[in-house]
Structure formats: C-alpha cells, structure tokens
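Reviewers asked in the last cycle whether our approach scales beyond single polypeptides. To address this, we selected a multi-component target totalling 978 residues and predicted its structure end to end. The input consisted of the following lines:
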Amino acid sequence: MKPILTIEALKKYYGKSKNQTKALNGISFQVMPGEFLGIMGSSGSGKSTLLNCIAAVIRPDGGTVTMNGRQIQTMKGAALADYRGKEIGYLFQNFELLDNLTGRENILLPLSLHGVPEKESQRRLAQLASYLEINDVLDKFPAQMSGGQKQRVAAARALILKPGIILADEPTGALDSKNAKALMEKLAGLNEEQRATILMVTHDSNAASYCRRILFIQDGVLFHELRRNLPDESQQEFYARILSVMAQLGGGSANVL
Amino acid sequence: MFFNLISRNSKRSRKENGLFFGSLLISIIAFYIILSLSGQDVMRFLARMESDAVNRLLSMIPAFYGMTLFILFFLIYYASKFQLERRRHEFGVYLMLGMRRGKLFLLLLAEDFHSSIAALLVGLPLAVLLSELISLVTARLVGLGIIGHRFTFSPTAALLTAGGFLLIKFVAFLILSSRISRQEIGSLLTEMPEGVKRQRPACFYALAVLAGLLLLGTAYAMAISGLSWSDLARMGLTLLLGLAGTLALFWGLRFPVTLAVRAAKNDRQLHVFNLRQIQETVVRRSGTLAVCSLLILAALCCFGAGVAISRFYGNSEQHVLDYTFQAEEGIEIVSASPEEDAGAADISPMKNDTGTTTISPRGDGTGAAVVRRILAEHQLEDRFSHLFEMRTGYIRTTEDYDHAFRMDPVFSALEAAPASEERDTLLNNLGYATYPHLIALGGYNQLLDAAGLPPLQLADDEAAVYIDRSFTSSGQIALLNDILASRPEVRLDEDSRFLTGKVQTVDLVTDSSITLSFALILPDAAFEAYTEGHWDVYLNGVLAKDETEQASLMSAISEMNQALDQTGLSYESYLQNMGRQLFYMVASSYITLYLAIIFLIIANTVIGVQFLISQQKSNRRYRTLTRLGAAYPTLCRSARAQINWYFGIPVAVAACSSLFGIRALLTGILSARAKSSLSEMMVLSVAMILALCVIESIYITMVKRSSDRYLLTLMVPEREE
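The resulting structure, written as structure tokens, was:
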C-alpha cells in the first residue's frame, strides 16, 4: 500500500545564525491511507510548525512533503490553494467558524472557495450533518451554538470536500471533557467506518488514546513512537502507555536515551 | 527611549492609516484656503469693483471657518477613535509593564502632537501652493491678466489654520484618551467582540424600507414643487422628512440584503461570505452609512447647484457695449458738489459757484454733444469704433397712464394660444404695459449695428416691441414672436399702429442704468412727436477693435477707465457688469465647491476608515479563509467586492437623491428667468454628478489598495498556542 503522505527530512528554522531556533530539524515519517495518527509534544516542540508545513501555510527550509505522490513545494498559486482546500481538511483548536455565517454557510464555504457546484455536495452535507448530529444548528449562527456543536460543524466543514487527509490541530483544546469525548468518538468513527485518514496534533493524552499510532516530537526531532496493539490492547491500556511516555518527555531526552 | 517610542509610534500610525493622514492634510488645506480667500487675485480685483458684496462675502469667512472646524472635528474624532481602538491591546501591555496612566496619557498626547505637527509641516506648504494655484487658475479663467499675479502668503491664515487644526485635534484627543485610560487593563488586553445587535422580524425592516422611500418621496415632492421654500417651518419639515427617510431606508436595508443572502448560491466564490459581511456592516452601521450618504448628497447638491448657478451668471449677458456715458442728467466735470440742482443748469457747460460744471438735462441731445466734445478734447473719441446716442422717453401726449397703450389683438391671440406657464406669465406681465417707454429707432439700429445684427426697418405707422432679457425667457419670446408675425394692430394714444418684427432684447446700455420690462421702438419722427422733445440720452461706446486686440478686453477697458477718470465724465463700463457677474460666479462656485469638497472628504473618509477598521477587526475570518484554501487574489477580490458595495450603497442612494435634490435647490434659489433654463442646468448637474462619481472611484481604489496591503499581511501564519 502506498503512503498517502510522506514527510522526508523536513527542516524549518526561525531566526538567523546565532539565535536560530530549529523548529523542525529533519523529521521523516509516513502516513498510510485510513490511518489515525497522533502527534504529541510539549509546547514549542515543533508540532504546529509541522502541521503548518503539511498544510502548505509555511514553506519548509529543507526536506519534502509529498501528498499522494505530489511534492507540495512545487505547487504554486491556484494549485496550492486547491491543495489546501481539497486534499486536506483542517480542524482548528478554536473551531475558526466565521461568526457571521450560519452553520450551513460555514460548512459550504469550501465549495464556494473552490468552485464546486452546490448540488453535488447536498447529499454529503445531509450525511455529515446527521452523522455529526448537527442538523438542528445548521441555520444557527456560531454564537448560538455550544462549543461541541461548533467543533462538529467545523469537522463537517473539514470533511465536506472529501479530503485525502484531515489535519486536526488540538481539536479538543477548547472543549470540556464531555464534548471532547463526543468529538473524539466521532473522529474515531469516521476513521473506522469511512477509512478517513486523520493526522491529529494534541497535548491531550486522553484524545491521543483514540489514535492508532502516536509520534512524539521534541526540539524539532522525532523522539518516540507508540503503536496501539489492536485488537489486544484496550484504549485504557494505550492511554496508560501514553502517560508514561509523557512523563519521560517532561525530563527531556536525557531521561530516556 | 520615551521619545523614540513617540516618534516610532506616530510614524507607524501615519503608515498604517494613510487614509486618515491624508484627510488631516486635506482639512489643513481646507482651513487655509478659506482663510486666505481675501488674498486671491479674483477677490482683490472684485474688491475694487463690488467692494460691498465682496466685503459681505469676506465677513462670512469666520462663520465658514467655524463651521469647517465643527464639521472636521467629527471627522478627526471618528478617525482618531478607530486609530486608538486598534491599539487597545498595546496600551494594555504598556500598563501591564508598569507604565502609569499619566505617562500613557502623556505618550498619547505627544504622539498626537507629533503627528499633528507632521501633518502641518506637509499640509501648510501644500495649502499655500494650492491656494496660489486656484488663484492663478481662476484669474486666468476669467481673463484677469490686468492685475498681475502676486504671490500671497497670509501669516494670519496660516496661524489660524494651525491653531484651529491643533485645537480640534486636542479636543478630540482629550475626549478619547480619557475614555481609554479609564478602562481596566484586562478589558484593554482582551479583544472586545462587538455586541450582537438585536434582530427584529423581517417585516419591520421591509416596512422601514417602504416608509423610507415614502418619506424621501414626500420630501422631494415638497422641495421640487416649491412648497418647502415658502416658509421656514415647511423647509424644516422637508429636511426632517428627508433625514428620517434616509435613516429609515438604511435601517431597513438589511431586509433586501437578507433576501439576497437567502437567494445566493453557495458555489459562487465567497458570494455568501461577501453578502454576510455587507449585511453585518449595514446592520451595525446603518446610522453612520445614512449620515455619510446624506453628506455625499449635500456635496453633490452643492457642486451641481454651484456650477449651474455660476454658469448661469457667467453666460447670461450678451456683450455688445463697452461704455455708457450718462448725459441726460448733467455731467460733473469737476466733482465737488453732488447736490447741484441739475435742472437749473444751462444748455452749455458752465462753471457755477461751487466749481461744478453741469450740462442741460432737457433731453434734446445736447448733453451727449458735450460728452463727445470732452472725449475729443482728451483724444479719446478715436478709440471708440462706435459712439452713438440711445434715446428713451415717455409718452407725453397723454396723461391717461392706464390706457395710453392698448394691444387687444395681442391679448386675444395670447388667450387663444394653448395653455402654458409662458402664456400665463406673458398675459400677466403684458397687462401692466399700458404706459410703455419709447425708444428711438435711430439709436437702436446703431446698437444693432454694433452687435453685428441687421437693422430694424419700421414704416411710419409701425412699432417694434422691446423687452429686456432679464424680464423674459426664450419660450415667452418665441410665443410673442409668433403673435407679432401677424402684425397686430395696437393703439398708442388712440392712434392706430402695427407691431412688427421680432421682439428686441439687446441691452440698451452697458450695465444697469436702464432696464425696460416693456418698451416700444418707434421711428425717430414718431418718437420725437410722442415724447414732445423730452427724452433721456445715453451715449453708448464700443471700443475700437485694435484697442481690444492689443490687450485683453479687460485690460483695454481698465486702461480706458483710467483715462476717463481724468476727464471727470460719469460713465459705466462693461467692467462693472463683468464684475458683478464675476462676483456671483466666484462667490457661488467658491462656497459651493468648498462645502462640496469638505462634505465629500468627510463622508468618504468615514466610510473608508470604517471599512478598513471593520476589516481589521474581522482579520480572523480572513485567516480562516486562508486556511481553508483561499488564495490571496481570492481574498482581495472578495474584499474589493465588499468595498464596492460598502461605498456603492451610500453613493448610489446619494446620487439618486441628488437628481431630485439639485432640482429642488434650483427651484428654490434661482430667479424666475433662470428657471426657464432649468432643464439645461439639470443636464449640467448630471454631468457634475458623473464627475463626482469619478472622484468616488478614486477614493474606492485607494481603499482597495489599502485593503489589499492589509490582506497580504494576513497571509503570513500567526503562531497560536
């Protein structure tokens, strides 16, 4: 099976010579179709930079990002915008719904950006709305929705154009535990039932325990990898393993290596 | 360090908000131009000719200055408010770092002063330059080569400009900074979301649109019919209706926008987003947009009406004569005693006890001969190509003033003509023509000759009708000409006489010593018989061609005036006539253009600044769109579409209203004779509105560029944790 996303020796440096910060210092990994991959790391470890490089929001200083066999560094202008809109779906920590648009208009926004006829997506919208249980908020404005509803509307927006991969940036960061659990169950469900590929950056060990595989980043390099042993390992056991790695992470690489 | 911060901050403000800085410059220029008006070439020239009127105009300048200060205060207050609002977070950080509120106040005050001084340093020289340019251009346009341009820098105007500008800046700053510095640090640091406005059922808004249109319609109907101009209360009611109508219309606008959002297809690129953005601004700022629209309307009306009026005064007179010497009441050769009893004087000039020489007023033309002689003595006669007597008088053969002249066939013909405003006016006006002035044919034909027109041929029993142009319109003349073509028989002191030829309208004298609402031109013999030898004589002169060819007409007349002043002759010259026209032209165009520009600047700056600020407040939305795959050109297109709508709505409403507004204004302020050319002036006004639309588009382009620049800064991802 071919990987959907290949990251090779990815580098991103901020600042100049003496004060240089190596946000990403040669990271390489692959994401297979239908995979639910988590990326964990402490603040400043380079998680967001990695996600931004994959989303083509920032340009890496070295290495390559290959999505479905195409190097995104070679894309320009309209192709790049198309890539951002169609090949990836982005789920933000703060939902980033436009507050002056209704739920439906927010979900259909990518269509208007990428010139996709509305008719084609009506069925997809109905499907997503019923799966994510947001039918009754479609005509409401974000200010009239709860946090959980907002994030599920945002998820529907990320999924409406059937992207190859969903990039989730701390999706549970602004949710209470109940809503966070509900969202993670929906994402895990999408991954299992529809084989949606999800790459999630998170701080939250609980949210991470829904993933199949977790990469730990520290100081811009890959530091550890955890795989959930399915079907033997329960989510609870996997969560315990994640917590132990997190405890080691707190002390830096010297504690482990 | 503190001073560095001040200079850096104010430089940044100037860069970030160029539009605001630009309007500061324009207000400085506006202040200076109005204050230095008395130094303009045209004004200095007019002050010699029409000193009373000019002085009255100049005495109004302080009032204009005060009004300008007042209006521009709101502009500056508004723009500064946004400027400070944008920096709330920064002020919060200063306070968190331990800066005392007093020091923050000082910092802001110093920044404000810094940017004001910068604006003055750039603005004042620009203002002086522009004022000179206006002076030169107007002088050139009206052909005032004679005066010679003089560079004028008015220190008082500059001081008052700087003083007024700093004053309004300071007052606006005091109010704003006291508000900011009273706030909690916490509320400064967090971005304050704009409160959600309460929504009412859609039918409210639909009703508001209808009511707004109805109120506006009523207001314009009242103004155009002339009803509003009858008294102050009605005018107040009209203005109130117009104001309420515009406010209601803008308040209700969200209804059509909501309909548009519902009908919109989601697959048109960012169409729904754009409409929602517009809806939001219309909802939140309907009041401000309505006021801006009214300001643009005021500007358009001022501009259109001003240009129309000045053009009317500029074009109204056909110029034939350069000089008229008054010979009928005696000429004062040596001015000493104006109370001289002219009637007692002899035919020939003679010195009396007071040293004043007077000439007979008996109306037999002798006075004119003396004028000719004096002119000849000063070698001035040769400089005229035409010099002839114009004789006018009364019917002296009867004292029945009510029936001396009857033209029943003319009235019957008029009554038979199809009903029209012109017919009714003529019927009314001619009803008073029972004792007309008489004009001698000989002098009038010489006048026609000077005007390059064919002479009038009258048989012994014929007469021609003369009506001064200021008492009639082209429509009335056409109607009367039709009737005269049938050679109606009239009665002049019971003698039968036939009216013939076309209505004559060439001015009898240079300026204003005589204007006749209705007169008869009679063959010289008949004239002399009816006047029984008593008539007034006006000696008219036209300067020789080579005189006017060497220099401009203005300078030729000016030079001749100097020579004539030496002779002691009393005369009126075309310069006075021209001076009056010029004054109306200059006064109306200066004032209306000035107001129009001020109103335009304010409205456009407020709309522009408001758009840019609301764009900055919704920066998260644009960032999200980028994340969703919107490319920079897409965002720019979206913002540009919003700008078009945002400017377009108030400008379109104003432009529609102005078509009615200018008409109403012309109805109210133009004299009866000007109304006849109303349609011509409307065309002119429409042209002016188009020109102003061009100015609008320049403003819109500026805001679009500014928006593009801002959007580009959003393309760089922001680090968020």
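The interface with chain A takes residues 196, 265-273, 276-277, 279-280, 618, 620-621, 623-631, 634, 717, 719-721 of chain B (CB under 8 Å). We regard this as preliminary and will revisit it once experimental data from Aim 1 are available.
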